Amino acid sequence: xxNFENANAKSAEERKRAEMHRTYGMWYKEGATASxxxxxxxxxxxxxxxxxxxxxxxxxxxxxxxxSGMSKEALEAALAALNAQ
Length: 85
Hints:
The protein is mostly helical. The chain has 2 domains: about 1-30; about 30-85. It contains 3 helices and no strands. It has helices at about 5-25, 35-70, 70-85. The longest helix has about 35 residues, at about 35-70. The protein is elongated and about 75 Å long.
């Protein structure tokens, strides 16, 4: 195989990996079986589900902290301003 062919093959592989990374968050080894992919997806879904739960809890507690220092009047004014938009 010539250097040109090697460069083209390497470039095609890099494009394939970049596309997989954009679509799935990582690239898979060449020849991965359906079982490998299902297992990987299950593991990623479990991790991301936990992160989403944690971020949701953090968001809610942070929102409560932000709002706890505001008066009822200030909250009503903020809501009225949002509704006016």
